[in-house]
Amino acid sequence: MILFLGAALGFVSVAFGAFAEHGLRENISAEHFRFLMTAVRYNQVHAAVITAIGMFLLSQLSSPINQQLRWSGSLISVGTMLFSFSIYFSVVFDIPALVNITPIGGMTIMAGWLLLAYAAVRASKANR
Fold first, then answer.
1. Half-sphere exposure (Cβ direction) of 50: Cα atoms closer than 13 Å
2. What is the mean pLDDT of residues 38-46?
3. Nearest CA to 15 among 78, 84, 76?
4. How far, in Å, are 49, 55, 113, 123 from residue 76 at the CA level?
5. What's the pLDDT band for 52 if we cut at 50, 70, 90?
6. Fewest CB atoms less than 10 Å from the CB: which of 36, 56, 79, 109?
7. Quick one: which H or E segment has residue 92?
8. Apex CA 107: angle with CA 106 and CA 111, to 5°?
9. How far is CA 35 from CA 18, 56, 104, in A?
């Protein structure tokens, strides 16, 4: 499921980036366009990370760190959706209050990164 989420978020980042550039840029303020491009960048970067976690999970079916990796991938996935999609929908549908969700997404992404770091430490200790 983690690999699927990474692939789906990667697709959305490219599709929405193209939509923003070619369909919205002329119709929104420069500030809103900058917000959208920040959301697209976060979406793209984290889609790649989620995909990498999913690929690792496929290759290491019996690894002791799989549980932390699954949680990390899930947190980064949910956080990316909350962060990027709250900005996307806020700008596209002109609902400024949706950006109140954005920091929750950012904190969720950070929690996922911390859990990924914890998994890395556990893995390095196990390989000694």
1. 29
2. 96
3. 84
4. 8, 15, 7, 19
5. very high
6. 56
7. helix 86-92
8. 120
9. 15, 32, 16
pLDDT tops 90 at residue 88: yes
State the average pLDDT over residues 96-106: 97
The two tokens of residue 82 are 């909350």
Instruction: Report in angstroms the alpha-carbon separations of 69 from 21, 49, 75.
Output: 34, 11, 10
Q: What is the mean pLDDT of residues 60-71?
A: 82
pLDDT of residue 62: 72
Residue length of the chain: 128
Q: 64 falls in which pLDDT band (50, 70, 90)? A: confident
Which tokens go with 45? 């970067």
